[in-house]
Automatic annotation (TrEMBL):
Coiled coil spans: none
GO cellular component, one term: extracellular region
Main location: secreted
UniProt-annotated location(s): Secreted
Cupin type-1 domain span: 54-198
Protein name: Cupin type-1 domain-containing protein
Top-level taxon in the UniProt lineage: Eukaryota
Protein family (similarity comment): Belongs to the germin family.
UniProt xrefs under InterPro entries: Cupin_1, Germin, RmlC-like_jellyroll, RmlC_Cupin_sf
Alphabetized GO MF terms: manganese ion binding
Keywords linked to the UniProt accession: Manganese, Metal-binding, Secreted, Signal
Taxonomic path: Eukaryota, Fungi, Dikarya, Ascomycota, Pezizomycotina
Range of residues in the leader sequence: 1-19
Organism: Botrytis byssoidea
Length: 224
């Protein structure tokens, strides 16, 4: 069974480390961007002991409890600056999910490596929800600006690899952004302009992943 304490601990771990990318060295990134040639860029990197190697597993928020999004981008991997790409490793523990979010500056190609993951995507008002089940070596696309979410349907871990066509794609979790608006505006948006409307607590961004649906947790009860 899922002990209540264990589930609570998952939630604490999810919010203890922020997956918001912090730039390692903005001055170095700036120097790389203004390099006159690719040779100048390479020499600058090597002369400053910057590596062309990135290990996802050694990053601070690499975890499957309940999961994480680990980005190799201009902020975390200076050598990737000016290539217009981000590579991300998506870890989802049992029933782990990425809450609804969008990338304001990048289209996202996602490939499943292990596990079974359900994805949802909606591009704009009037569009239908695109619902996909990904198994190993299957992929889907989340266009730039589209709202999307995913959940590990299994009781073991799921892993996916993501490529975005921007070195600074950005991520906005929908509900975390919504919660920053004035309460009366949020209430009106929910069709409840009367006083007394309260938005339920929303998990922090954390490592990028949160615990998924009650249905998945119930299905995995006793299997972990």
């Amino acid at each position: 069974m899922f002990p209540k304490l264990a589930i609570a601990s998952l939630g604490i771990l999810a919010t203890s480390i922020q997956c918001i990318d912090v730039t390692i060295n903005s001055i170095l990134d700036g120097e790389i961007k203004v390099a006159s040639t690719q040779l100048d860029k390479m020499n600058f990197l090597l002369n400053n002991n910057l590596t062309w190697f990135f290990d996802f597993t050694t990053q601070p928020h690499y975890t499957y409890t309940p999961g994480a999004v680990v980005n190799a981008d201009a902020a975390t991997f200076p050598a990737s600056t000016s290539y217009g790409m981000t590579m991300a490793l998506i870890n989802l523990g049992p029933c782990g999910m990425l809450p609804p979010h969008y990338h304001p500056r990048g289209t996202n190609f996602v490939v499943a490596v292990e596990g079974v993951t359900q994805t949802w995507m909606i591009e704009e008002n009037g569009a239908k929800v695109v619902n996909q089940t990904l198994r190993p070596w299957q992929m889907t696309i989340f266009p730039r600006g589209s709202i999307h979410s995913m959940q590990n349907l299994g009781c073991t871990k799921a892993t996916l690899v993501s490529a975005l066509n921007s070195e600074d794609a950005g991520t906005q979790n929908i509900l975390n952004g919504l919660a920053q608006l004035p309460p009366d505006i949020i209430a009106a948006a929910f069709g409840s302009p009367a006083a007394g409307f309260n938005l339920p607590p929303i998990p922090e961004v954390g490592t990028g992943s949160i615990i998924g649906s009650a249905a998945c947790l119930a299905a995995c009860r006793g299997k972990l």
